[in-house]
Amino acid sequence: MNATIDTSIAVVCGGPSSEAEVSRSSGRCVAEALKQTYPNVVLLELDKHLSAALAANSVDVVFPALHGPPGEDGTFQGFLETQGYRYVGSGVRASSFAMDKSVAKCIFRQAGIPVARDINLEHSLDLDAACQHIEKVLGDDVVIKPSSEGSAVGVRFANSAEEIEKRLQEACLHNGRVLVEERIIGREITVGILDTGKIEVFPVIEVRTPKGAWYDYEHRYTEGASEHIIPAPLSQAQYQRTQEIAVLAHKALGCRHLSRADFVVPEHGEPVLLEVNTLPGMTPTSLYPDGARAIGLSFESLVSKLIEGALEYDHG
């Protein structure tokens, strides 16, 4: 088989996730870029017709351009495994571990990776007792977030007892498990990893938003709403350490092909790892393609390398 001419590729996007529209944007970008190299590329929606569509197109490899559950949490990867499809990205376990922030942080701690202090809370919590526990353990300046969402969906900040109670109540209305972390002030930093035979670390990127804002959903996906500084203006020690931690986290989770590690880097001291994204965004405003371009890798070359990595992986 001619790996380029005869390879049939399905880019899968959308689905029921709160990040579905961003996923569709990523999917369109990936599909158009792949068509520059591969003639047989289809863009498919993650829905009940997907299995039949994959079979009808005699697909050889799947590129999941999916964000959030069930596309990024191992569920979709398990479906592809049972159907025997090769695919871009991490497997079931790594995807599941990375998507669950609480589980991922346990793995990071065991690997000696610096993370923020946190408390895990269930949906059926006693609100008063939870608030008292948070203030006792973490103080009153915290970040409250869902355990299993991406793109900063549902993230809330609180810096007083009253705000903690209010934000916690809001979070519990819309999410199951909730993660509460101490708030660390510093630069918003990200590092991409490309892992298709050997690990390549992208340059460190600082994300800057207007004063009073942060890198939330709006600033991630609105063109011109954030600035990506490459390379990030960190000290040499901090710069090297963020890249080192990104590789450690990628390996600790068992990721493959690609990942992006997000950090807060205080003015002094260790970078603090926030999370690892196993299917980072591929939209025109996304950080991961920016990192690739910074090492001279065009978007078309990047997605082709990822397909090549998936084709070389033997599930058997």
> Unreliable segments (pLDDT under 50, ≥5 consecutive)?
none
Return Rg in Å. 20 Å
- CATH homologous superfamily heading of the largest domain: ATP-grasp fold, B domain
Distance between the termini: 19 Å
**Global morphology:** globular
CATH structural class of the largest domain: Alpha Beta
Q: How many structural domains are formed by the residues? A: 3
CATH architectural group of the largest domain = 2-Layer Sandwich
Number of helices: 11
Q: What characterizes the major β-sheet?
A: 6 strands, antiparallel
Q: What structural class results from the helix and strand content?
A: alpha+beta
At the fold tier of CATH, the topology name of the largest domain is: D-amino Acid Aminotransferase, Chain A, domain 1
Mean pLDDT: 89
Task: Please trace the helix and strand order, writing H or E for each element.
Answer: EHEHEHEHHEHEEHEEEEHEHEEHH
β-strand amount: 15-25%
Helical fraction equals 25-40%
Count of extended strands: 14
How are the elements arranged and paired?
Layout: E1 8-13, H1 20-34, E2 40-45, H2 50-56, E3 61-64, H3 75-83, E4 86-87, H4 92-99, H5 101-110, E5 118-121, H6 127-138, E6 142-146, E7 156-158, H7 161-174, E8 178-182, E9 187-195, E10 199-201, E11 205-208, H8 217-221, E12 227-229, H9 236-253, E13 257-265, E14 272-277, H10 287-294, H11 299-312
Parallel strand pairs: 1-2, 1-3, 3-4
Antiparallel strand pairs: 5-8, 6-7, 6-8, 9-10, 9-11, 9-13, 11-12, 13-14
Architecture overview:
The protein has 316 residues and is of the alpha+beta class. It folds into 3 domains: 8-88, Rossmann fold (3-Layer(aba) Sandwich), CATH 3.40.50; 97-114 and 185-312, ATP-grasp fold, B domain (D-amino Acid Aminotransferase, Chain A, domain 1), CATH 3.30.470.20; 118-182, ATP-grasp fold, A domain (Dna Ligase, domain 1, 2-Layer Sandwich). 38% of the residues lie in helices and 22% in strands. The chain has 11 helices and 14 strands. The chain has helices spanning 20-34, 50-56, 75-83, 92-99, 101-110, 127-138, 161-174, 217-221, 236-253, 287-294, 299-312; strands at 8-13, 40-45, 61-64, 86-87, 118-121, 142-146, 156-158, 178-182, 187-195, 199-201, 205-208, 227-229, 257-265, 272-277. Strands 9, 10, 11, 12, 13 and 14 form a 6-stranded antiparallel beta sheet that branches. The protein has a 4-stranded parallel beta sheet with strand order 2-1-3-4, sandwiched between helices. A 4-stranded antiparallel beta sheet has the order 5-8-6-7, with helices on one face. Helix 1 links the parallel strand 1 and strand 2. The two termini are 19 Å apart. The relative contact order is 0.15.
